Amino acid sequence: MTTDRIEPGVTMQQATVDGARLCYAEAGTGDPLVLLHGWPQSHLAWQHQIGPLSARRRVLAPDWPGWGESSRDTGLSCDYDTEVDRIARMFDALGLDRADLACHDYGGFLGLGFVQRHPDRVRRLAILNSRAHGTFTLPYRLLFGAFTAGSRHRATRRLLVTPPVYLVHRIGLAPYLRNGSFEREQLEGYLGFLRTPAGRRWYTHFFAGYEVRVRPELGARLGEIACPTTVIWGTRDPAIPMRTAEELAGRIPGAELVRVDADHFLMEERPTEVTAALLRWLDRPATP
User: Fold this and answer.
1) Where are the beta strands (DSSP E) in 56-197?
2) pLDDT of 4
3) Distance CA 225, CA 221 (A)
4) Does 201 score more than 60 pLDDT?
5) pTM of the entire structure?
6) Within 10 Å of residue 170's Cβ, how many Cβ atoms?
């Protein structure tokens, strides 16, 4: 298990969710705070935040099933409804009745559905640069749409399980090395599974269940979210439009919008600003 970036006081734990191994980082004591990462990351997306946040909360940062050190089990369904309901089963496995929930990217897409289905289980909600109730800008919508469509057909799937898939992703994420979001070792940790046939098979399995389309029920129910919510957004994100953040903040009652001069992976590019915004969010009184 990768531990070289874990700070003192942070331990790696394991649980079983849907019959598969779930690895997660844990630190601190008190009321629980769950940190959900996005594509193609792991709990290390929050490496700069876990320490400071654990001074206030019991922080649990999972490697979502299929990512990081958790099992890549092609027997697990990756469709949206199953993934959202899997958060509830993860809460159960971790012994959590209710928690603060901060979620980025794909984690925010799932987390938004979770808070709408289980409002009694989320004390506070933070969403960071996530497609959330919407979808991607046109170039990324076409890119992810092509990968999703290709993963669902046998002929094209054969291309997506070949070694060049790793190189395509490595080149595509190279700008985040240049802007300081990632170090080379860190990016390799996120993408290294694509070097293996088993990893590539799981990846196509994931995308075969992924939806690029808008799920209208998510936007329709934004006004029902009653917990204290903050929307923390890197304003230079090429994949997700700023209007997504503005709609979230405008339609969720009492939501705060925090703009950060950053790209998509803002927790790593601007860790101090993101941590400060999350600490202010945790200071907001929670709904009973």
Assistant:
1) 58-62, 99-104, 122-128
2) 47
3) 7
4) yes
5) 0.96
6) 17
